[in-house]
Amino acid sequence: MKEQYTYVEFLICLAARLIEDNRTVFIGYGMPQVAAILAQRLYAPNICQVYEYGAIGPEVATPFRRNMMADTRNSYRAFMWTTMNPTIAMASAGNIDYGILGAAQVDQFGNINSTQVGGTYERPGIRFTGSGGGNEVASLCWRTVIVMEHEKRRFVPRVDFITSPGYLDGTPNAREQAGLPRGTGPYRVISSLALFDFDPATRRMRLIGTAPGVSVKDVQDNLQFELPVADKVSELEPPREAELKMLREVIDPDRVVIGRV
Amino acid sequence: MTKLMTLRDAIARFVPHGSRVVMSAALESLIPFAAGHEIIRQRIRDLTLVGPISDILFDQLIGAGCARKIIAAWVGNVSAGLGHNYRRAQEQGIPHRLEIWDHSNFTISLALLAGGLGVPYIPTYSLLGSDLPQTNPTFQQAPSPFGGEKTLLVPALQPEVAILHVQRSDEHGNAHAWGNLGISEEAALASQRVIIVAEEIVPRAVIVSDPNRVLAPSFKVCAVVHAPGGAHPSSVQGYYSRDHAFYHEYHRATRTAEENDRWLAEWVREVKDRAEYLQKLGDARWRSLQLKEHRYAAPVDYGY
């Protein structure tokens, strides 16, 4: 049977299933927003979504408007709508369990680059947008989940610029040495090919699951670094019917985020 | 005395060449595009643009040659991705390279909070371990004198002027704003002066009926401008929605420096003011952005 879902649907469903109910979750821009909405509708009705623009606990109105963080509908039924300082303060004080972020470029230690590639800081090859609130999510939430489409050029040994910190250079306690809150850091990377965790000893990204029809070698061939593989690599469950129905009929009926099969 | 004036007068009087200007303090909403366009028309130069997530307003000011320096967390196009003018400036020096002090949302927020508090800096754990402290020379790292924890010291910013778009204001600059405010309050308190651009000018009685909703002390406000639609294409909660298509159109229309010049001529330089801009946008499009449903808050009782 031909694939009945898109890569984006696949990774959004994976991310949604990873979100635990009754947790506080700082939501980054893009696919994380859709994953959080899906999670809230199907699996985690009591999650508290936190958005940098100040909405705490909204039940985001659907259909979801693509590529928009602070749309006028995205704060629907928030139980609190404050400003940015108090919101990020909640992460800074240790009150946010998960942060979910997209990434343009990630390295084997989970560092994210959204500043520049190539050249120098003053004369970059390509200048990106900069951190926004991404650094805070990666620095201050307990567990960071990175959600991204899988392209070889995006998975590099070392990012050109650390905008949002992962495990830095991978040395033991590198984050704590730098002064970041103890016990925080990247938790999972969800790509359209695979699911990764971070080896507790080496802090390197490690393969723990592959998408249906994707081999370990396929994943290894699509990274620019050597990829450790966990003892047990599970085959990841494809999107469930209820998930696809919710995504296609309620959340994104125009399929601007999830795409078309 | 009334502070009501035209946008042209407000920009000419209070945004001189070389100013540090806070705009887009409310992130993706309430972006003072009308004011930014007036800055471009008046060819104000050497500005330092200060903001968290500036969306395409900073990109436009950069492409028009108004900026010399950027103190911001994010410059680009929230709907379409990267900003062509920002890229051209840094990658090719067109129209010229900018000095950039990269921040994150939290550190720009703390810089303005410190400015508003009148203290020299605020410590945080944000940015530690990242490359941002190396490229922004204003950050310092120091252990806490109390517990020895490593911290990043974010120095206070006190810009010359903040330009804030709001839902409504009286003629003295007592302004109500709601929805996404981002760091608007911090920006107003930190800046030496505040320009209020409002969808509606209302009697003082409306403002004092709900003083908890007032954004900033009006004694800091130097000008109040009535500019309905002045935040288009960004959204104003309770007034109009974001014009998503406009951001994509801008992205497509500014791929080269020449195309960008044409876009600026068409949408900014050859447009007299916001009223003419809305006329150019067209009735049908403007109507399509108006509210589809109202959601009123329950009234609050300030009685005693």
Explained architecture:
The complex is a heterodimer of chains A (261) and B (304). With 261 residues, chain A is of the alpha/beta class. Chain A has a single domain, classed as Glutaconate Coenzyme A-transferase. Helices cover 24% and strands 24% of the residues of chain A. In chain A, the strands form 4 sheets. Chain A has an 8-stranded mixed beta sheet, with helices on both faces. A 3-stranded mixed beta sheet of chain A has the order 7-6-11, with no helix packed on it. In chain A, α1 (7-18) packs across α2 and α2 crosses α7. Chain A starts with 6 loop residues before the first helix and ends in a 10-residue tail after the last helix. Chain B has 304 residues and is α/β, with parallel strands linked by helices. Chain B folds into 2 domains: 7-104 and 158-288, Glutaconate Coenzyme A-transferase, CATH 3.40.1080.10; 106-155, no CATH class. Helix content of chain B is 33%, strand content 20%. Chain B has 12 helices and 11 strands. Chain B has helices spanning 7-14, 33-41, 55-63, 84-92, 105-117, 132-135, 184-190, 204-208, 244-253, 257-269, 274-281, 283-288; strands spanning 20-22, 47-53, 67-74, 99-102, 121-124, 140-143, 150-155, 161-169, 175-176, 193-201, 221-226. In chain B, strands 1, 2, 3, 4, 8, 9, 10 and 11 form an 8-stranded mixed beta sheet that branches. In chain B, β1 (20-22), α2 (33-41) and β2 (47-53) form a beta-alpha-beta unit. In chain B, α1 packs across α2 (33-41), α3 (55-63) crosses α4 and α5 (105-117) crosses α7 (184-190). The longest helix of chain B is centred in the middle third of the chain and has 13 residues, at 105-117. Chain B starts with 6 loop residues before the first helix and ends in a 16-residue tail after the last helix. The model of chain B has no long low-confidence stretch (mean pLDDT 97). Classes of the chains: A alpha/beta (261), B alpha/beta (304).
